[in-house]
Amino acid sequence: GENVEQHPSTLSVQEGDSAVIKCTYSDSASNYFPWYKQELGKGPQLIIDIRSNVGEKKDQRIAVTLNKTAKHFSLHITETQPEDSAVYFCAARLSNFGNEKLTFGTGTRLTIIP
Amino acid sequence: GAGVSQSPRYKVAKRGQDVALRCDPISGHVSLFWYQQALGQGPEFLTYFQNEAQLDKSGLPSDRFFAERPEGSVSTLKIQRTQQEDSAVYLCASSLARLGTTDTQYFGPGTRLTVL
């Protein structure tokens, strides 16, 4: 099955600086890669996603890049703000027909230092 | 509009008790997923429904775990004879997705199960 690795496990950045979180996946058949933000006591919330036919996607301060050859994808947050502090998860989904499950990484705890 | 809701939010069970966790998906969402999230880990897939059909239950850790969605809306995850290793947050997610498409999975707040 699919395996997703995520690094780093913790990340602290000064407010206003950029943060980068990286993930690798094992199955080249994966075709959908969402990123979720999880705050304490809440469920994961989708912040951005990318499909395998696209190399980069941006939404305001958040961007995701995908390298299918190397099987890795990254989350970039620019101009970080205190409210960006949370745990971030990457995930991957196989393209098998009817196989909708997401395989998640182990998470990155991002702390923004005011 | 209303998101995915789960109840109860917290459940404490003694080892050996049975528990039932409820998920109310977003209205009109065809697909429903259950995930288990251990402390400090990412969610792990348990099972998946499309309408009332359980299409994938490969992630259920043992035959003590059972899920149903009889009318294609509300779902219940039941755990029989709970063990300490069942302690985790159980997340429910729903999506519009039909077979062969990809849509956002929207997560509920989870049920935190603690087995003593």
Structure description:
The complex is a heterodimer of chains A (114) and B (116). With 114 residues, chain A is mostly beta strands. Chain A contains no helices and 11 strands. In chain A, strands 2, 4, 5, 9, 10 and 11 form a 6-stranded mixed sheet that branches. In chain A, strands 1-3-8-7-6 form a 5-stranded antiparallel sheet, with no helix packed on it. Chain B has 116 residues and is mostly beta strands. Chain B has no helices and 11 strands. In chain B, the strands form 2 sheets. In chain B, strands 2, 4, 5, 6, 9, 10 and 11 form a 7-stranded mixed sheet that branches. A 4-stranded antiparallel sheet of chain B has the order 1-3-8-7, with no helix packed on it.
SSE layout:
The complex is a heterodimer of chains A (114) and B (116).
Chain A: E1 4-7, E2 10-14, E3 19-25, E4 30-38, E5 45-51, E6 56-59, E7 62-67, E8 72-77, E9 86-94, E10 102-104, E11 108-113
Parallel strand pairs in A: 2-11
Antiparallel strand pairs in A: 1-3, 3-8, 4-5, 4-9, 6-7, 7-8, 9-10, 9-11
Chain B: E1 5-7, E2 10-13, E3 19-24, E4 31-37, E5 44-50, E6 53-56, E7 65-68, E8 75-79, E9 88-95, E10 106-107, E11 111-115
Parallel strand pairs in B: 2-11
Antiparallel strand pairs in B: 1-3, 3-8, 4-5, 4-9, 5-6, 7-8, 9-10, 9-11
- Percent strand of chain A equals over 45%
Shape of chain A: globular
Low-confidence sequence ranges of chain B: none
| Biggest sheet overview of chain A | 6 strands, mixed
How would the global form of chain B be characterised?
A: globular
Number of helices of chain A: 0
Listing every helix as H and every strand as E from the N terminus to the C terminus, the arrangement of chain B reads EEEEEEEEEEE
Radius of gyration of chain A: 14 Å
Q: How far is the N terminus from the C terminus of chain A?
A: 41 Å
